[in-house]
Amino acid sequence: MALFTRKRTAETAAPAAVLEADPALAALTGDYTIDPAHSSIGFTVRHAMVTNVRGTFGAYEGTLALDGTDPSRSTASLDIEIASIDTGIADRDAHLRGADFFDAENFPQMTFRSTAAERVNGDRYRLTGDLTLRGVTKPLTIDLEFNGSATDVYGAERVGFEGSAEILRSDWGLTWNAALEAGGVMVSDKVKLSFDISAVRPKG
Q: What pLDDT sits at residue 24?
């Protein structure tokens, strides 16, 4: 189910197709709050050149302002508490919170503020914005898939999105590493981010 369907007219060829809003999805226009109890924000990074370490952030809040007739006017905002990082190993989490990595004491939050949104095709969208981490702000592009909408048991409207992005952690000043005896480094510079978002618009 796409947020928009393309309509051809006699005056326009396929490359200049006109976007026509789907009335059912246009009704989803409104302000939504991300529901952490039914969402997940995580990351994957290569460790010791041979395996992956996966982690999540357990504390965050965010909002979506969806425009069901013009996706380019949709926006997103996300605030993540660095101290909530969880890779399943307490000592590793403590190291990640420390000055070698996120320096959570001095930079307690990671934030994202969207600056542009576009439909790529079908249910796929692209969200561009500013990611701020360790006091450094750089652009981030997130590829998203719209998973649909539903009315929950409380009568509230829910929408779901699943997305991913890749960053180089060194771009945000996370440069700590250790050389391996056999060559290579302990932690990859490339980090894969994942987003599984459920957002709710209260019944009203």
A: 64
Neighbours of 60 (CB within 10 A): 19
- Decide if 102 contacts 176 (C-beta within 8 A): no
In this structure, the number of other CB atoms found within 10 A of the CB of residue 5 comes to 13
Burial class (CB within 10 angstroms; exposed 0-12, middle 13-18, buried 19+) of 65: middle
List phi, psi (to 5°) of 96. -65, -35
Confirm if 157 and 28 have CB atoms less than 8 A apart: yes
- Of the candidates 60, 61, 65, which has an alpha carbon nearest to the alpha carbon of residue 83? 60
Q: In 52-166, which ranges are continuous DSSP H helix?
A: 90-97
* Angle ∠(142,36,24) on CA atoms, nearest 5: 65
Q: Is 106 exposed, middle or buried (0-12, 13-18, 19+ CB in 10 A)?
A: exposed
Whether 164 shows a pLDDT value over 90: the answer reads: yes
CA pair distance 113, 190, nearest whole angstrom: 21
pLDDT of 8 above 50: no
Tokens 């101290």: give the residue: 83
Tokens of 10: 């006699």
Give CA–CA dist 131/136, Å, rounded: 8
In this structure, are residues 168 and 139 in contact, taking their beta carbons and an 8 Å threshold? Answer: no
> What is the identity of the amino acid at 17?
A
